[in-house]
TrEMBL record:
This is Antitoxin. The lineage of its organism: Bacteria, Bacillati, Actinomycetota, Actinomycetes, Micrococcales. Antitoxin component of a type II toxin-antitoxin (TA) system. Belongs to the phD/YefM antitoxin family. Pfam families: PhdYeFM_antitox. It comes from the Bacteria.
Length: 77
């Protein structure tokens, strides 16, 4: 997928809110350093994961919260 726009790092930092609004509307923005692409701003996508007969809904936001049981097992809490 080709970017709708390429911006340098300074422009991305200065106009991040505007760029995110463009991404929210479906555009893809590439951030470049000295003309070399280093990152893409793309719309968030919720995914469905199918493993055998198991069908899971996957969303990056689900991974942000800590899991109490995992934390306990790892001694993090």
């Amino acid at each position: 997928m080709e970017a709708d726009a390429v911006v340098n790092i300074h422009e991305a930092k200065t106009h991040l809110s505007r760029l995110l609004e463009r991404v929210r509307s479906g555009q893809r923005i590439t951030i470049a350093r000295a003309g070399v692409p280093i990152a893409d701003l793309v719309p968030h996508q919720e995914r469905s994961v199918v493993y055998g007969e198991l069908d899971l809904d996957y969303d990056d936001d689900d991974l942000r919260d800590s899991d109490d049981e995992v934390s306990r097992l790892l001694g993090s809490r």
